[in-house]
Amino acid sequence: MENIKPWISAFRLRTLPLSVSGIVVGSSIAYYNGFFNLSIFIFAVLTTLSLQVLSNLANDYGDGVKGTDNQTRIGPERAIQSGKITPDQMFDAIKINILIVILFTFLLIYSAFNTYNFLYSVLFFVLGLLCIYAAIRYTVGSTAYGYRALGDIMVFIFFGLISVIGTYFLYAKQIDHVLILPACIIGLLSAGVLNLNNMRDIESDRISNKITIAVKLGITKAKIYHSVLIILAIVLSILFVIFYYRSFANLVFIIVFIPLIKHIIIINTTIEPKLLDPQLKILALSTFALAFLLGLGHIYTAL
Known about the structure:
Layout: H1 4-11, H2 16-19, H3 21-32, H4 38-66, H5 79-82, H6 87-113, H7 118-137, H8 151-172, H9 180-200, H10 202-207, H11 213-217, H12 219-244, H13 257-269, H14 277-302
Helix pairs in contact: 3-8, 3-9, 3-14, 4-6, 4-7, 6-7, 8-9, 9-12, 9-14, 12-13, 13-14
């Protein structure tokens, strides 16, 4: 049991709800439009969860071997940093996880397209490989994009645009304009989670030469940038309601504005970076709650 605990910690289970937020939104809109398929949903969730775990393991490995995760870091102690998992063990786990992701990706594509739509199947398999590449290259390698202030835009693209729009396409085999705003909302909030993580680790990242947007901006401007991400997500959510209102159920997700606004206030009144850590869970769960309630509203309206 003691040997399992470090791996469970390395999987960073608290990041998993955020990772499936886009899947929930894309699937719910597909249900509303009459395209939902349970097997596609199950394999989409499994593929996304395995990708998130891969990203977490690769992040631990990349920051661990570079020495970025050290005694100056404020956040939870990482697996390689603690010495409970060696770099070689982590690297082996990454390779196994890649095979798992490929398996789930294949099953997802087969569930969506069967033996038809060969070009779509190839497109999504290539997209799956790009997701694997992005998950690993965030911190691994000498040209890791997470060390060049590109993490936020990549999170916006993969957690927002690709997750929501790509999921819907698997069901419907087409793209609908209704997806654009939700995809941007989830992408912005997900980028906010990453930025919050980077604000917490701003000093240790600066010392380790890990250049994030937070490091580039400095803590004061990084808080402004963070507020803009959350406020823009709220504004786009309001626009989504205005443009696509069908029933009162479509308004339920607005309740999540309460913790989001409170979150902005806390971030801007917190002085010590280490005190930002509890807000990571708040923002991640708020994003998932928004996705779930937005999706629930569409499902209820379709019944």
